[in-house]
């Protein structure tokens, strides 16, 4: 599993580059459920997340919400619009209270021109996300719902924790509903509920209101890689 993009950013750039990036833009805050930008709109600013988490979603032909990704601190969302000027390819919604900075296309591109290493990093991130999307399509065809839920919890836990977790300091996925998880893994809410119940009974997770604590990360990772795990469809 790749390190969270926020950690990758800190590792890839110098302290001066990160400080300058953090100074860009107009500070804004969003409450959970607030739409930061919508799929199809023609705004062209980028958004730098400083605190909190957002979910990246897209609407299906049946008007259902598909969760494409979760993004956290030190990640940039909406970075494609300032680069190509095309309409938004997805909707971004605050999943938790969010502190961010809105960076105009002009300021964003000026910064990238002055810091080509940041541009290379962003292009690498875009390519990584495309590869993850390809793997996601394979997973939908080959993994059980239980395995897909396990992989989802690991990924969201990494976004939340920002570091590898141990049993004593397990990552917590905050404000994520079963509806979000079902949209993320491409399964019905009932199938996800059944898979979550199985994971709870096996002692891999504990759940509360809109939060999930990973108890046995190693076992979850094993499930996520097992193409024949469980019988939930």
From TrEMBL:
Residues 9-129 form the Cyclic nucleotide-binding domain. PANTHER family: CRP FAMILY TRANSCRIPTIONAL REGULATORY PROTEIN, HTH-TYPE TRANSCRIPTIONAL REGULATOR ARCR. Pfam families: cNMP_binding, HTH_Crp_2. It comes from Micromonospora endolithica. GO terms for molecular function: DNA binding; DNA-binding transcription factor activity. GO terms for cellular component: cytosol. Keywords: DNA-binding, Transcription, Transcription regulation. This is Crp/Fnr family transcriptional regulator. PROSITE patterns: CNMP_BINDING_3, HTH_CRP_2. InterPro entries: cNMP-bd_dom, cNMP-bd_dom_sf, Env_Response_Regulators, HTH_CRP, RmlC-like_jellyroll, WH-like_DNA-bd_sf, WH_DNA-bd_sf. The lineage of its organism: Bacteria, Bacillati, Actinomycetota, Actinomycetes, Micromonosporales.
